[in-house]
Amino acid sequence: MKIISAHQPYFAPYAGFFEKAMRSDVLVIMDAVQFPRGTTWLTRNRFKNDQGTLWLTIPVWKKGLGLQKINEVKICYEGHWQKKHMASLSSAYANAPFFEDHRSFLEKIFSEQMSSLLELNMRIIRYVLAQLAIETHIVTLSELGIEAKEPELSIKVAAALGATHFLAQSTARKYLDQEGFQNKGIHLTFFRPKVPVYPQLWGTFLPNLSVLDLLFNCGPKAKAILEKSCSPIRQQ
Question: How far does Cα 36 stand from its chain's mean position?
Answer without folding.
Answer: 16
